[in-house]
Amino acid sequence: MDHTPSRFTGATRYVLDPELAGIVNISMALEMPLLLKGEPGTGKTMLAHAIADSLGMPLIVLNVKSSMKLVEALYQYDTLTRLNDSRFGDSVRNVSNIEEYIKMGKIGRAFTSETRSVLLIDEIDKADTDFQDDMLDVLDQMEFDIIEIDKVVKAVHRPVIIITSNAKKDLSDPFLGRCNFHHIAFPDPKMMRKILDVHFPGLDENLMESAIAAFYKLRELEAVEKKPATRELINWIRALRSDPDFKPKKLLKGEAPFLGVLFKKSGDYQRAAEFTNRRRLF
Questions:
Q1: Cα–Cα distance between 209 and 215 in angstroms, integer?
Q2: CA 83 to CA 255: how far, in whole Å?
């Protein structure tokens, strides 16, 4: 019997709001995948890590690629190794037994795990519609076929399924209809303070307030292709703290060092630099 805790109440390094906690626990109770949307850096992927950590479950991550076929996520048949074994005859494997050359993919590993796991399917919007819908068929049925050996793999335990999307393209209606959904909004300054308190206990209050104010001002810049996210702010504060010459009052004067920590695209970096050079940060 599985004695894994059944409710998620948060993790030490993940600030959880009540609405998100509720949909996570409802999804686990209903045994439905939870689809998370939101701009990059809002904590979609980290939520799966937090659930696994909090509930003591292994985390299995399927990073979806645009060219990926569903079978790759289920299992792989290593024909090349089998061919080499048959040619050289020095393997401990039985060449006539195809099953010895079957390796589970990420979904297959979640199904065959002896303990219940958290299965993170990251950036599902990169896949085509057929991949999305066929994958949910497998997740609904909790089984799939290995056609090379005419074997059905059934899930030992139903994993907790978290699916993320950056909303780069629409998902099909059948896909959306078979998931619970939550949009993770970008944190407001109040929530951001809580997040920073978790990552930087005892952080200097002047540094926190000036960094947060500067960060949100820079996020408001027009024509920015990739706005800095929470992880960039965290790394920015790390950079500011590591500079012995930095003083929080520099931000109040309009100076914003290490803009390359916040902005990762040349055009965005240039706009931010021009903006701060004009001393219009505050």
A1: 10
A2: 63
